[in-house]
Amino acid sequence: MKNIWNLTKKDLKVILKDRAAFTWLFILPVVFILIYSILAGLASGSSSSKKETDTRALLVVVNLNPDGAQTGRFLDDLDRAGGYRVETTSQSDAEQRLKLLKIQRYLLIPANFSDDLAQGKPVTLQIINHPDANVQGTASLLQTVNGVARDTSLELQLLDGIRQMGEMQAGNPASQEAFPVEKTMAQAKSQFEHSRTTPLVAITTRVLEQESKQVLSTLDLSTSIVPGMSVLFVFLAAATVARGIYEERKLGSLRRLVSAPLKRWELLIGKMLPIWLLTLVQIIVIFLFGAMILPLLGIGKLGVGESPLAWAITSMVIALCSTSLGIMISSLAKTEGQINGLSNALLWVAGFLGGALLPSFLIQQIPMLNVLSRLVPQSWAIRAYYDILARGTGLVEVLPSLGMLLLFSAIFFFIGLRRFKFE
Amino acid sequence: MPKILEVENLAKKFGELPAVKGVSFSVEAGEIFGLLGPNGAGKTTTISMLTGVLAPSGGSARINGLDIAKEPIKVKHMIGLVPQDLALYPTLSARANLIFFGSLYGLEGKQLKERVDDVLEVVALTDRQHDAVEKFSGGMKRRVNIAAGLVHQPQLLFLDEPTVGVDPQSRNHIFESVLKLNRERGMSIIYTSHYMEEVELLCNRVAIVDQGQIIAMDTIKDLVGMLGGGIIQVGLRQVDETLLNSLGKLEAVKSASVVSQPTQSDSPQPESSVVKIEAENSRTAIVNVLGYLNDHDITITSLDILEPNLESVFLHLTGKKLRE
User: Fold this and answer.
1) Residues A249 and A372 placed together within one structural domain of the fold
2) pTM score, two decimals?
3) pLDDT (tens digit, 9 = 90+) per residue, A246-300?
4) Are B81 and A252 in contact (CB < 8 Å)?
5) Is A258 in CB contact (< 8 Å) with chain B?
6) A94 shares a domain with A78
7) For B87, which of A2, A252, A422 is closest by C-beta distance?
């Protein structure tokens, strides 16, 4: 263990003197996330403009209040919001399709929707997911439904406020001057604020046949972007590990290290550990940026989930998988060009397939890509982060994803150890 | 003296290509042993096997009686390697480099500090110890490179072409350090080089290596003694048995023979043959040979006098120059 720590200390000293490495590790991901978030925000804004083409994703709705006055309007608004083509069906049909994974989720409108809204009572819509449903897809739907629901709440609450003022004036014509324009405006603003803080329409999500509901109170753009971007950049650390080993080889110091009384696995772990530690710092920086800086820019606050322990362990396992991949890359690539080529292929392509660049619900619409996405560690890493941050799950629930990541890590390290040219 | 290193039929193949073809030699404790040969002769490959960097394809080696293949970690504690490359971290200071390499051998705390101070003194870099290695001259980098191989006080030090690309002043400093380590601290050293002068200056015994084989091994005195009083190579247009017999009988000449092909790049014209004359005394022999050829009106197309040294021994044994 001492040898591993000595190697780690040395590499940390070398890296701390390398400003370019710092830029790559900390500045670049933050800038990338910022640009991506702004672009995604703009795209999401423009997508809410009216679109008549039917390239929209299918949204199956079970409407238990088909004759309600508000229901029809709500569904029309949802359809017009863009992004989703609304199709209503029966609950049994929706559940059947969900079980067969023909759809990943459906929206349930309760029977009391219109009546409760008319009486100013809050109502709750439900998004029912398949257990394997993509969380990004749920997040995207939630965002859209939230937007329409907020508009509905606002409209109803404003109308209610104006109605109340009208009734008061009608009941007491002498008090005409008691409701000047300023007072009316103040009342409207108050209603507007009230609709924001206490919306009439709430949305919950749950997994089919699971009783406990997992409430996604707020799932902002940053929660759907930051985890994916973090995973992308954490896996770029694999290239850093491979390049570090290549540098040792180029300098000739690898030869000296091999002639020292080190075991070969100690040498490889000693090359992984410093990057693993830096990657953890990188993750913390990225998430702090998402949680503290992005909200200041109006992009939305990063959800932090309910289990910091699950987040921390997941981060450690993802960093382990990435650095193990670096060992494998260094064992397969002989030149710097090969390292760069292999890293780009493995990291960007796998990052894309895993859902780091595009929401994986889009990728999952293509069956072949859907299968491939499960063969890359990035998809399991993103899945684990979303489960923790967006679904609010704990360590136990993400164990399958962590297990897959540990399996990937073991395979990468084993291949690296077997094929590594120490000579 | 006890043997610190015993090598038996050590061999290495890269694919089908044999790089070292079964070399055997031993080194006594306290000895400086030279491996002399041209680039590509197999010196570095041999050292790489002995230091655990390369796995041998055949044969065995023992250091202090321990098999390098069976007990590599124990063996590695006893040896130090100064590779041909500058195996240092350029952005770290000389001291930080030495602390790191020392720590890999289990040194820590006060002991590590003292060892680093000591080797910095040996290579005369105490005053520059806190400077980044990248700011050093080539010679200073070489000295840090040597210090990194010494910091754990190995019993056997492998120096692989330690003076490549070094200015004369630093080269002399390196020679002084090597001799000091050997004479004052009793360190056994294996020194590889393709510079004959270095090996002649430093080594007690030398193995001459060519094409993966040891072609001669002895003390320098005995190796050079193979040449007697020197060798004269004369290019002649026409050579026959009678001429060779006559030359062989001249005073101070031991023998005369035809070498199959020219041995020098500035060799005679294509139709010439080269006669190799082994002399008992090269000065007397040259006078007699030139007198005989002049008296018999035989045209000389080239003339080379090989002084008795390791370069000439290598040329004598292989027909090639060391630095060809």
Assistant:
1) yes
2) 0.71
3) 988 888 899 999 999 998 899 999 999 999 999 999 999 888 887 777 777 766 6
4) no
5) yes
6) yes
7) A252
